[in-house]
Amino acid sequence: MAYWLGDMLEKVRTTNESGLSDKQLILNCVVNICDVVKEDLTDFFVKAGLLVPINEVVTDYSSALITITQQEIDATIAAIKAKNYPAPASPVINYISANSVNTYRLRQAVTGSAGVGVSLNSNELTVDADEWQHAVAFETYKNDTLLDVAIFGTGSADRTFTKVQFPDTATAVFAIGYNGAKKLVYPATLPGQNVITGIEEANGEHANIKVFPNPTGSYVNVTLNGEGKDQ
């Protein structure tokens, strides 16, 4: 929705919010945005840090104690979900930036091949944007634990590459598409990952080809028209 901010501000302007606390204004802001865009953005606001418990003094022009409990957050989320708004088209809009607006707008799928267009130097990966197109972010993992996120174009003034943190404990980096799809960037293969994903044709003709075991370990057995050979 192109003019959601103006619509939200008009809604606030025409609503009597006198006497409301800072906490109530924050929670009202979340509700107002969802009402204006007609989408359930609660997941986004949780990831963005606006719908998380807080009991801290916040300084913004002036200082004030902000206290928002999980119970109050749950009530706000429930009120929004009761309106049955659809979820946004992208489950990772929290990764959007000026560098990736068109990728989200045009819904372009991330492309790239693991191990290609990426180099490691001193616990930092450099990912080539030409080889990895339409990635909105890169996630660094230690097994199943997320360690770090680099928004597309981080460290590059002209968006030709992205700098991605890869500490000694890291095991993999994945490119993230606008639709939440993950594509392995580094290393080229993961332990136990099947490198051969399928063979359709041989010598231009369909053939009876079997590759096993799947997933493979240190060897594969290729059977072509009933004749097998270990590789």
- Measured between the Cα atoms of the first and last residue, the distance is 55 Å
Regions with little confidence, pLDDT below 50 for 5+ residues: 195-207, 211-220
Q: Rg from C-alpha positions?
A: 24 Å
**Strand arrangement, largest sheet?**
6-5-8-9
Report on the biggest sheet: 4 strands, antiparallel
Quaternary structure classification: single chain
Can you tell me the overall shape? elongated
List the secondary-structure elements in sequence, H or E: HHHEEHHEEEEEEEEEEEE
Which structural category do the helix and sheet elements fall into?
alpha+beta
Write down how many β-strands occur, each being a DSSP E stretch of 2 or more residues: 14
Relative helix content: 10-25%
Average pLDDT score: 86
Please, could you describe this protein's structure?
With 231 residues, this protein is α+β, with helices and mostly antiparallel strands. The chain has five helices and 14 strands. Helix 1 packs across helix 2 (22-37). It is elongated. It starts with a helix and ends with a strand.
List keywords for this structure.
231 residues; alpha+beta; 5 helices
